Amino acid sequence: MNICVVGSGYVGLVTGACLADFGMNVVGVDKDVDKVEALQRCEIPIYEPGLATVVRTNMDEGRLRFGTELGPAIEQAQAIFIAVGTPSRPDGSADLSFVEQVAKSIGEHLNGFKIVITKSTVPIGTGQKIDKIIREVQTGQHEFAVVSNPEFLREGSAIGDFRNPDRVVIGSVDQRAIDMMLDIYSPLRVADVPFVITNVESAELIKYASNGFLATKVSFINEVAHLCERLGADVETVARGMGLDTRIGPQFLHPGPGFGGSCFPKDSRAVVQIALEHGLHFQIMESVVAVNQATKERMVEKISQAFDGGLKGKTVAVLGLSFKPDTDDIRESPAIEIVKGLLDAGASVRAFDPAAMEAFREDWPQVEYCDNSYDAAAGADGIVIATEWNQFKALELRRLKELLKRPLIVDLRNLYEPAKIRAAGFDYFSVGRVGAQQEQRQEA
Ligand code: UDX
Fold first, then answer.
1. Which of 136, 81, 87 is nearest to 114 (CA)?
2. CB 247 within 8 A of CB 160
3. CA distance 65 to 55
4. Is there an atom of ligand 1 within 6 Å of 152 CB?
5. pLDDT computed for residue 443 by the predictor
6. Interval 287-307 mean pLDDT
7. 356 alpha carbon – ligand 1 mean position (Å)
8. Which of 101, 216, 347, 426 has the fewest Cβ atoms within 10 Å of its own Cβ atom?
9. Using one digit for the tens of pLDDT, what is the confidence trace for 256-268?
10. Whole-prediction pTM value?
11. pLDDT mean over 24-46
């Protein structure tokens, strides 16, 4: 089957590459000429483990190519995946102008039955909107069907998530479209992946409700962590005790500096906005948005307390800038709030991240970027761990102690065992854990 994937961002690129790997004939179209030229040379613009290999293999085998011309790609395709950006507007609602432009082009180039599939997270009702635009724009009498097929992949494990998803959601009431979708995903059907087939609106809502629920889980445990600090309880044990209940599950119960990334913050705000547009207050999501902001801000207070209340004139080594490990993505990363807070308080920041420094430098040139964790620690008054990259989990403590002015670690991802790290002579602060006498002393 000939497939056109519009948008070569995160979702588009992974979708196109993986569908080619499923044996489809895929063209990825993007209007960014530089990006497309780079992709044609097999240079991948994003940091995603395993993606380069899938792209290269499928380009070499002739199933995957990239271009900038949308018209001919639409005309040749039987299925068109829309994977363009849906950024947040200032009020939190999703900006659909890119999706609408693509729908218009599809209408202009419709030359036979095609299915038009939304992969981007789009507000409920977008499928209908796309249907209306194509119908209004097309001059012929061609049939088409709009399908919602939300993507649940996570950055850093996107290829694995695409190949081995928990479920595939297909929203359409057109049997021809459903059959084509089942054909496209046949390798996953063979692998017994569950398929949820429903109408477009339900499929669109499944995506928002899933991300909203996971964001709620993270905010919930972050609030529990805060409470643990007041009570002298240990959030790691509380989370384990909760997660062993199969109705709750252990995932997304890791406390930290708040969620970031391109999905959770945007989608949480969008759920609030969608509900408001339909006359409802989605109170839990409203709280999640507020709790996440408060969590990020609380981290700066925590750091300030660890530094004995005074950040002015101090040098802080920040390890980790991306919103999570294995990505160079800094969108809504808690590290942004943290670095901003440190600089506002008069501290100097020396930072290291294995992948995200280039992106961070654009907005934060005043930060000193270092070659590695030890370089960042050299001469600093303490370390803040903001992202749980693997290489931060086994730092050479003795070496750090020699390099730091004061042996102080504020670990916002709970990577270390408090007792062990204190035994190594460090002042250690983490999130919501017992044995953190210093935390309790500061809170008192
Ligand atoms: C998320 C969804 O998981 C994915 O299904 C959807 O398609 C896109 O949004 P992603 O943004 O890549 O994926 O990251 P994810 O691993 O879900 O983490 C999101 C944020 O929550 C990160 O900032 C992460 O640090 C934070 N998080 C996650 C926690 O703080 N604790 C947790 O237990 C889990």
1. 81
2. no
3. 9
4. yes
5. 46
6. 96
7. 17
8. 101
9. 999 999 999 999 9
10. 0.92
11. 96
Single-letter code of the amino acid located at 154:
R
- Cβ–ligand 1 distance for 253 under 6 Å, the answer yes
Closest residue by Cα to atom 25, ligand 1, is 324
Alpha carbons 131 and 182: distance in angstroms, whole number: 21
Residue 414 pairs with which residues in a beta bridge? none
Tell me, in angstroms, the distance from the centre of ligand 1 to residue 166's CA.
15
Could you tell me the domains of the chain?
A: 2-198 (3.40.50.720), 208-289 (1.10.1040.10), 297-443 (3.40.50.720)
Q: Which of 11, 89, 10 is nearest to 270 (CA)?
A: 89
Per-residue exposure over 157-184, b if at least 16 CB sit within 10 Å of its own CB, e if not: ebbebbbebeebbbbbebeebbebbeeb
* Per-residue pLDDT at 144: 97
Residue 107 CA to its chain's centroid (Å): 31
With a 6 A CB cut-off, is 211 part of the ligand 1 pocket? yes
Contact call for residues 42 and 17 (beta carbons, < 8 A):
no
Token couple for 17: 């590459």
pLDDT given at position 435: 55
Q: Which two tokens stand for residue 286?
A: 């409203």
State pLDDT tens for residues 168-201.
999 999 999 999 999 999 999 999 999 999 999 9
Residue 210 alpha carbon, nearest atom of ligand 1: 5
Q: Is 256 in the pocket of ligand 1 (CB under 6 A)?
A: yes
Among the listed residues 4, 18, 228, 263, the single catalytic one is 263
Ligand 1: does its nearest atom lie under 6 Å from the Cβ of 331?
Answer: no
Mean pLDDT of 317-326: 97
Residue with the smallest CA separation from ligand 1 atom 13 is 154
User: 265 is written with which tokens?
Assistant: 């913050």
